[in-house]
Input
Amino acid sequence: MVTMTHKPQSVESLLGKEAEDLLTYQAKVSKDLLHLPGADWVDRIFTQTDRNPQVLRSLQQLYSTGRLANTGYLSILPVDQGIEHSAAASFAPNPIYFDSENILKLAMEGGCNAVATTLGVLGSISRKYAHKIPFIVKLNHNELLTFPNQADQVMFASVEQAWNLGAVAVGATIYFGSLESTRQIQEVRQAFARAHELGMATILWCYLRNDAFKQDQDYHLAADLTGQANHLGVTIEADIIKQKLPMVNNGYGAVVKASDQKYGRTDPKVYSELSSDHPIDLCRYQVLNCYAGRAGLINSGGSSGENDFAEAIRTAVINKRAGGCGLISGRKTFQRPFEEGVQLFHAIQDVYLSEEVAIA
Output
């Protein structure tokens, strides 16, 4: 039993001055163009694909677990930050998570659909928990012990290892836009193909990484660039796309202006007809690039801070109203007291369970 330590607040109160706008805005691109989450998600979307019956079973298990079971929405706990951000930076705020079992306990008590973490974490307690909550093994990581620090995703686990410990899915990151992305695309494509052969679903962390994307604003969060990353991700058959919530747009134009060189290709209609500066429109453009929602879009919650509950609810509202399929929430949930982490997960999930938060 979780003891209440954070007083529950309504969605409207957490959204503050943005409440009316975020809850009533009608998106520029019609929702009628999208494949939207629902109880029949696996039947409606995946039974017509090339995924084999074992993958369909894994996807159904993923979408049928936790408080969001059989809604078409996902709430996932990701804990790979011990490698990506260092164990010290990740777990010192709450040292109980140095113990791998507590990661699983948080996901289960939090009502999550699944836990996404490292081979080591899941391998250390797989026989105790593999039949209790779906496992997602994160295959590759960027570690911060090499000096000088570098940005490159390298394989820490094999697909066969993930299958042997009972995973229903594998996850991987590609740093699109980086010099290493060509190799990463090839490695992840091969891993995803093998995962599908063995009956596991695939989730891609579609991140951007290039210093050229940092100009007057951080265009790593640009809707047009992240949208194209999503499109590349579904091309290598990611079943689910994990992406950061977009904050700006026209990253292509910013890079061209700063470098005085040609870069990529886009179309003026992206900015005039398919998106705007409204956060729901920016996120909907990301969904549009996931084969119009056939691959579910989950947005990430970002780093932990003073306004975690408000920020997480805002992200959930934007993702859901844009046509996304859920939230993946890490540091905001485990870098705080266990009970508060559970409450934050439940608050996020309540957004997806609420009939009052409707698709824009």
About this structure: Residues 78 and 286 are 21 Å apart (CA to CA). The chain is about 45% helix and 15% strand. Strands lie at 74-79, 114-117, 135-138, 140-141, 154-155, 169-176, 201-208, 240-243, 296-300, 326-328. The longest helix spans residues 181-198.
